[in-house]
Design a protein that fits this description.
Blueprint lengths: L5 H15 L4 H74 L38 H7 L8 H8 L5
């Protein structure tokens, strides 16, 4: 980068004053300042784009590592489930072979209950948010129950004594 000290800046200013002249120097200085500002903004935008790209690459790597860890966990869960199912079947076969439960239907169980996966949850279909016992509108009107909120101005107009 340029190494500009105070002495060099003063020398450049003096040369510019002689070459350009005192009438045009302020306008030229504003133009140069605006161009330098644009250049600095452009450099800052490029830096921010590069930083965003680097952050995006880091996020992609992190996402891949998390996905890989998730796949490993899923595989270990499936493996453990398969081992547990195999142990369950062997234990069940051993119990049935030993005479503990000679007939699964007589013991109260069935092969359908032992099937995997368990039955899915079924919603009862009740509309628990819906109020079942609503007060009828004619009763509210007769009892004088307010059904809608009124503003203060509307209440004053409604209950103002009539002019005679």
């Amino acid at each position: 980068m340029l190494d500009l000290g105070i002495s060099k800046m003063a020398l450049i200013g003096a040369v510019a004053l002689v070459v350009i002249g005192p009438e045009k120097l302020p306008r030229v200085a504003r133009t140069v300042g605006a161009l330098l500002g644009r250049a600095q903004r452009y450099v800052a935008d490029v830096k921010s784009e590069v930083n965003r790209a680097m952050d995006l690459e880091e996020l992609k790597k992190m996402k891949e590592s998390v996905e890989q860890a998730g796949r490993e966990v899923e595989q270990s869960i499936h493996k453990a489930q398969a081992e547990m199912d195999a142990q369950w079947r062997s234990t069940k076969a051993a119990l049935q072979g030993a005479g503990h439960a000679p007939d699964a239907h007589a013991a109260g169980g069935s092969d359908e209950e032992d099937a995997w996966p368990p039955p899915q949850y079924r919603h009862p279909g009740k509309k628990w948010r819906l109020r079942r016992s609503a007060t009828p509108q004619w009763f509210k009107a007769r009892a004088g129950v307010r059904r809608q909120v009124q503003s203060g101005a509307a209440r004053m107009v409604r209950y103002r004594p009539k002019k005679r």
